[in-house]
Amino acid sequence: MGFPDGRSDFELWQIDVFAQAPLTGNPAAVVFGAERADTALMQAIARETNLSETVFLLPPRQGGDAFMRTFTTRREINFAVHPALAAAHAFCEATNPGCTAVRFEHSRGDLRIWRDGPNAPWFATVPQPKFETTVFSPADLAGLFGLSVDDLAPGSPQIVATGVPWLLIELATESAISRAHPDMTAIADLTRSISAVGITLFRPNPRPGISAELRTFAPAEGIYEDPVCGSCAGSVAAALRRRDPAFAAQALHHLEQGHTIHRPGTIMVRLEDTDIHVGGPTLTVMRGHFNREIALCPA
């Protein structure tokens, strides 16, 4: 994708998402100028960046601002919140720094990302939630994280998808979220067996002004602990809105994640009618160019 001044460099930006300061939140890579790259090369670049997601912004096909392809280190995916916010940030900074909305095309349709003003946080509307109740032994679930049954909140865990399915496990004790030591092999086996991307631990209302604190694990996807997860926040918000009238009545929520791995981030969730909007602050932390041989040659 070219730039306004005519450049067409094969260029990579690294954006921190849900970040109040540089080198916090969840980093994502955004690649411009990869029109000649095939899928194998894009996947190889995603492995090279070794981030949760890498986004390639390509020329639009049906009148949007760009066509977006998103890769984890293992496969191409259709939707994830944090790389979409990173892509909007990078696209506007590269092409029109004052813009307040972008429309990305992708394999399943269009995605609109917006903000309230030039320096405001970016937001995306997540897909309508889908809920599935599961039956697991509390002792088995607690054992996945080296916790006791008393650390888990009563009730059955749910698989909730707002675009991506997560197994949600609510915690009851204050220290459980920091004490959790995941068994990555067991978590990967379990999530594959139930077709979930990973497991999100959450504790509602850990302190005033914060609606929930999260930790997310997706080892089957090569993401051992995701620093700050937008789709997880959407799923947790959907679950809390469904059961808690006080949560549902509040229009704006702040969720926290990443403190235990030194990547603190704040996720903003807006509730509007039946929609859930997930967003947060974004920062450019790096820009660079690929070696020309990589840029011009398929993998």
UniProtKB/TrEMBL annotation:
GO terms for cellular component: cytoplasm. It comes from the Bacteria. The active site is at 53. GO terms for molecular function: isomerase activity. Belongs to the PhzF family. This is Phenazine biosynthesis protein PhzF family. The lineage of its organism: Bacteria, Pseudomonadati, Pseudomonadota, Alphaproteobacteria, Rhodobacterales.
